[in-house]
Design a protein that fits this description.
The protein is mainly α. The chain is built from five helices and no strands. Helix content is 70%, strand content 0%. Helix 1 runs antiparallel to helix 2, helix 2 packs antiparallel against helix 3 and helix 4 (67-84) runs antiparallel to helix 5. It is globular.
Length: 104
């Protein structure tokens, strides 16, 4: 993170935002950090890493009671993990049950 912006690889910047979000815990700034990490990973077309961030962001949103905001992120993560046959990540995703809490 101490490297000048032009010398910092975008993947490292994305990982830094992801971990910063996790360190912020319940702080509302975590939302912005997760979103930035996701944007950078989407630009790099790193499907698996993006899905992990979407899952973690979705988990964070559920913990904040923001079920409707979490639903699209968790759905996108599920699509990626399904395509990649990432069974352990699908199992983790299955443990985040928001369907009963999101109005149809």
């Amino acid at each position: 993170e101490q490297l000048p912006v032009g010398l910092q690889p975008p993947f490292i910047a994305a990982v830094a935002h992801r971990f910063r979000a996790r360190l912020l815990a319940d702080d509302p700034g975590a939302d912005r950090e997760f979103a930035t990490a996701g944007r950078l990973l989407r630009e790099l077309d790193l499907v698996f890493d993006l899905a992990v961030v979407q899952l973690e962001h979705g988990e964070w949103l559920v913990a904040q009671g923001r079920f409707q905001d979490a639903e699209p992120l968790l759905g996108q993560a599920r699509e990626a993990f399904d395509r990649l046959r990432a069974a352990p990540w699908l199992a983790r995703l299955d443990s985040v049950d928001i369907r009963a809490r999101v109005p149809a």
